Amino acid sequence: MTRHFLTVAETPDEDLDTIYRLATAPLDDTLLAGQGVALVFERPSLRTRASSSSAVHELGGYATFFSDDEIGIGRRESAEDVGRTLAEMYSLCAARVRRHDTLERLRAVVGERLGLINLLSDLAHPTQAVADVLTLADEFGDGDPRSLAGRRVAYVGDATNVTRSLAVALRRLGVHVRVGAPAHYQLSVGGGEDPSEDGLAGSLELVDDPVAAVTGVDAVYTDAWVSMGMEAETEQRRRDLASFAVTSELLSHAASHAVVLHCLPAHRGDEITDEVLDSPASRVWRQVYHRRSAMVGVLRWMKGEE
User: Fold this and answer.
1) What is the pLDDT of residues 54-71, one digit of tens each?
2) Burial class (CB in 10 A: 0-12, 13-18, 19+), 239
3) Straight-line distance from the first to the last Cα atom of the chain, in angstroms, rounded to the nearest whole number
4) Which residues contact residue 14 at a Cβ distance below 8 angstroms, ignoring those fewer than 6 apart?
5) 30 in a structural domain
6) In a domain, 77, yes or no
7) 258/31 Cα distance (integer angstroms)
8) What is the residue-wise DSSP string for 249-274?
């Protein structure tokens, strides 16, 4: 059976547990021997490309990188024709796309012929969420994600696709998630990666005050305020989000043992200060390390390892 990993929400708990376990378990470096993974990037990323290509290599496969200029989905040819082409030559495709609909169109046309991994879309960033869970599990649970139940994590700033996947993954583990953002930048609910889904073990709280968001939490997470394509909004976003910057003063309201996360790239001096990013509380580089772990886990699960 061909598997796809497009959102955290559509991935059953038992499969997520398997991904977390396989991410750090001893591996067979011939799992992907003779098999290719197409890396399709409509948007650039240092960590996503590095972690994806190194994970494929670690499992004995080979990766081929395709930039937006080379493929031009929707400009040079349709998503459907791109999917049909890649399915003739690769066993897996990991794609970083502008619109989640592109992934759904690819899935509809490739079906069982090509496994798909979402490396980021406007809806979700599930591989980042896996890396974040592994990072927090190292810190608070001796590597066991299930031991995170009852922990408190705050996300502050511009709540986006990263926030949605993070919130879904953490709530599934019984973590209490608090998102602090101005109304216009607050987490959207509903859709294919829905952090407000009923029945999840952990809670979700949306607040518009940064101090209220971080008070007493075990971890504080932030992300860039200005993403690719939003450069014209830079000054407005800086004004709107200034009070949500992760500074030493804001971090002082969290628990004394609190750690800081950021999925990078960081705009130092905007959403986070050098003092915090480079502090002993920062676990940002552990997140980078676990980006590869996450990809290893996802690839192994997609190839049927249990």
Assistant:
1) 999 999 999 999 999 999
2) exposed
3) 14
4) none
5) yes
6) yes
7) 38
8) HHHTTS-TT-EEEE-S---BTTTB-H
- State whether residue 45 is helix, strand or coil: coil
Domain encompassing residue 73: 13-125+289-302
User: 77-126: per-residue pLDDT in tens?
Assistant: 999 999 999 999 999 999 999 999 999 999 999 999 999 999 999 999 99
Residue reference for tokens 């504080």: 220
**Please, what sign has the CA dihedral across residues 6, 9, 15, 146?**
positive
Answer yes or no: are the C-beta atoms of 81 and 268 closer than 8 Å.
no
Of 9, 37, 45, residue with least CA distance to 291: 45
On the 0-12 / 13-18 / 19+ scale of CB atoms within 10 A, 289 is middle
| Cβ–Cβ under 8 Å, residues 27 and 297 | no
Domain count of the chain? 2
pTM for the whole structure? 0.97
For every residue of 199-229, DSSP letters joined together read: T-SS-EEEES-HHHHHTT-SEEEE--SS-TT
